[in-house]
Amino acid sequence: MISAIVMIKADIQRIPEVAEAVVEIDGVSEVYSTTGDVDLIAVVRVARHEDLADVIADRINKIPGMRESQTHIAFRTYSSGDLGAGFSIGLDD
Known about the structure:
Blueprint: E1 2-10, H1 15-23, E2 28-33, E3 40-46, H2 49-57, E4 66-73, H3 80-88
Antiparallel strand pairs: 1-3, 1-4, 2-3
């Protein structure tokens, strides 16, 4: 599974509509409304790198009200369970 984080800038008056359209796209697992430099952050999870082009370039970036996006592809995922297991390696209680 390939995960990507997509930072989205949208027309101010269309942020809710853009968020709703983005979350309906296959491959998008979550969309967050945020403060700061971007309006929305979408989490994309796909099986192949080629699928990123379909989801991001061909679908997300063509939504009316979209102004700009920036994509960050994740190399590795860490979760609280993973971190706990990693720090406990070699430790005997």
